[in-house]
Write the structure tokens for this entry.
Amino acid sequence: MSGFKMAPTSLSSRFQQSVTPNALRSYLAEFISTFLYVFSVVGSTMASQKMMINAAADPSSLVIIAIANAFGLSSAVYIAANISGGHVNPAVTFSMAVGGHISVPTALFYWISQMLASVMACILLRVSTVSQHVPTYTITSEMTGFGASIMEGVMTFALVYTIYAAMDPRRGPPGAIGPLAIGLVAGANVLAAGPFSGGSMNPACAFGSAVVAGRFRNQAVYWVGPLVGATVAGLVYDNVVFPSQELDSSIRGMSEAGVRV
């Protein structure tokens, strides 16, 4: 009987930790960072389509989007790293929750912040550009959904593995180099897979543009692949490559001043 009494208490305690003032600041930080990232990524795609007659077939368009991903993600992670951990991606949050770096209630609130921020960024882009088409992530006709999921999973593995390595407090303060490395691997992934699956690596980014555009085809590709890839990356780094008995999650989850979960 004692086991049944402890579970609700533990759940209640975890939920209370997830609604403290410091926790709310972390959710706000995630909202702002994700908003800025999605605005830059989706906005760069819209800008390239505006300036080029056939942006999809122009290699320079891919370079523009890759650079926007690299710079946007680096900045978004940097400004939120000491507050919320700078996840900016539901796949990263999912990996942290599976690895025990943050609690499940906290992860859910992170997801809400990230998804809402993505939708709001895409709405702002649509309204401010006088209802210009908001592009969605699509897979090329030569690929299957399974193949695209694998590609998105591999790219997200590379991204999240880099995040774990770059933001690991055991390696010393990440400074500006950590977020820069994260942005660079994201840009490289876009260059490698942009013409095939779009190079999302971020379920929130794909979801926000799909909601505003009203087009959800192949949306599962941008959830299943990234969530699996991110989870494998976290487990491999924490348990195989750089295991530790006492892993400090202050950088990865919330800041020292935030909620320690």
About this structure: DSSP finds nine helices and no strands in the chain. The mean pLDDT is 87.
